[in-house]
Structures are given as structure tokens and as C-alpha cells.
Design goal:
Layout lengths: L2 E7 L13 H16 L6 E5 L5 H12 L9 E7 L2 E5 L9 E5 L10 E2 H8 L6
Helix pairs in contact: 2-3
Length: 129
């Protein structure tokens, strides 16, 4: 069995008006929780905070998270994201409400958002249930 966790928390953004409080604190709390109660160790965990939590770094982190995933129920994968979320116009017609859900990285760009479709591409091999 392998365990991996990608923990993301963003208080500071390139666009200063988006500033939040508490998201970086969430990463600390989650890291402590999974180490204390769920047996994760430092090598199992990657944490992205503020300026390190760019679209590219989150995408790379998700690739690491899901690499070597067995898909047979023996592996544990955890992704947490504490930041803004929003919606944009659906780009491929797969949404009944005509909008894609979006996570907002540190360097969010409205013309190149991190869509739910991007997340799906990373998690599509996780079996239901």
C-alpha cells in the first residue's frame, strides 16, 4: 500500500484583491492530522502554499500524486485545496449548467483557468466506490 497527499493552501494571489486568510493554516492542520492519525510521513506529502501554488505546480503535484496509483483499493491518495473557487463558461459541452467549475491558483488567469476537466484528467483512473 502506498500513501500520497497533495495539500494546497493559498492566501496570497498575483491579483491582490483575491487575498484570503486561513488557507495556509488549513495546510498545517491537514498535515498534522494525516501524520498524527493516518500514518503519513514527510515523504508521502507535498505541500504548495501561496506563490508556490501556481497552475503548473498544482498540475505537476497532481501528476506526482496519481503516479504509481494501483487502482485496486490498496493505495491512498489525498488532495486538499483551500483557496478560491469559481466558474467559467464550459469549454467542451460536458456541463449541464454550461459552466466549468474552477480552482483558483496563485497565478489564476481567466483566459486559462484550472478547470474541473483538468482535475478529471488526473483522477479518471480512480474506480468508483
Amino acid at each position: 500500500m502506498s500513501k500520497r497527499a497533495l495539500i494546497v493552501g493559498i492566501n496570497e494571489f498575483v491579483e491582490a484583491r483575491l487575498r484570503l486568510r486561513g488557507c495556509v493554516n488549513d495546510t498545517i492542520a491537514i498535515e498534522n492530522l494525516i501524520k498524527t492519525y493516518y500514518g503519513f510521513v514527510d515523504d508521502d506529502i507535498r505541500i504548495l502554499r501561496d506563490k508556490d501554488a501556481t497552475k503548473v505546480k498544482i498540475d505537476e503535484g497532481l501528476s506526482w500524486l496519481m503516479s504509481d496509483y494501483a487502482g485496486d483499493g490498496s493505495d491512498v491518495r489525498l488532495f486538499t485545496f483551500s483557496s478560491h473557487g469559481t466558474r467559467v463558461e464550459d469549454q467542451n459541452g460536458d456541463e449541464w449548467e454550461c459552466q466549468d467549475e474552477v480552482i483558483v491558483p496563485h497565478n489564476h488567469k481567466w483566459d486559462d483557468p484550472f478547470r474541473d476537466d483538468d482535475l478529471h484528467n488526473h483522477f479518471k483512473h480512480v474506480p468508483e466506490n
